[in-house]
Write a structure and sequence with these properties.
Ubiquitin-like (UB roll), 106 residues, alpha+beta, 3 helices, five-stranded mixed sheet
Length: 106
Amino acid sequence: MPKITYIDHEGNERTVEAKNGESVMEAAIKNSIPGIDADCGGACACATCHVYVDTAFMDKVGEQQEMEKSMLDFAENVQENSRLSCQITVSDELDGLRVTTPESQH
């Protein structure tokens, strides 16, 4: 199973195993990762699962779709590596993925 490391704004890290096919958000919720609320349940209808993707993985997580771009307009402190974790599907290629949650989500 791929491992994903979630880092909070203070630098605390939690690494979890995720199932292929689930979203990075679903893995966070199942493992009680703080800072990822997922108010819409993964429907890409809010921005409460906003994360910063480690730049080494930007090519592997895929491009933002239009709906995700629209939702990120509502997020605070959006950066070039901002993504909604509900829109990143776990695969073996993402083993070792590191994402950081913004301070505004804590």
